[in-house]
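Quick one: co-fold with copper (II) ion.
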Amino acid sequence: MRETSGRGEGRLVAVVMWLIPLAAVAAGMHHWLPKMASEHGAGIDRMLHYLLITVGGLFVTGHVVFGYFLWRFSGARRAAFRLPSVRTERKWSLIPIIALSLIAEGGVFVLGLPVWAKLYAAAPPADAVFVEVTAEQFAWNVRYPGADGKFGRTLTQLLSLSNPLGLDREDLAARDDIVLLSEIYLPVNRPARIRLRSKDVLHSFFLPHQRIKQDIVPGMTIETRFVPTETGTYEIACAELCGFGHYQMRGLVHVVSEEEFNQWLSEQSPYF
Ligand SMILES: [Cu+2]
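Sure, here it is.
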């Protein structure tokens, strides 16, 4: 192979190709996740780390090999290669596809499905605290069922600024419902059932510390569950760009002891 003047540039690009995975590995070493504060959270973190390591490994390998070819063959006037048979070409196109699918998708299924089942498939525990969260542009309306344990009827025609959920006073079950704005109280180590609804557009109920992220779809009632394991005050964020005031859609989750929770609950007055 004859050397030409393009060699220096080619090798420079090769070095850049090697620096990219180096920077990616340095960034990957940093622990980006917020403190984990729920029972199933370890499973979510395990899956995220698995994906980071496997897909990151492929990313690094790809760049190292690419850089090697650039380094080795840059400046060559013509790259000589042998045309493989169609069969070989097919084989080497299929192998990476199958391997990647097995590593990435298979891993997500094996590690992720049991966690998913815990959150969505299992029957709700009897001692769970039931809370309803109705999202709207740009707030979270929080409702507790009150002493009767039943959420009262809501009607769209009753919606107003002073009745943001359209609670129906005629329904006995609605009279003791407790309504709060953008604040949730939960007892620590007890399962929480969160029933999610939306009044307008798509929102997403995101509790980064509890590793909960559930889209909310208008017209649907979706339930998500988790067990908070650490007391403290955490942020609720909306993880769906839902309009101009999306950034205002912050709320708070107070995870407190069982006694504090009961005390707090007894101090709340019913909506009507
Ligand atoms: Cu939103």
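If it helps, The mean pLDDT is 90.
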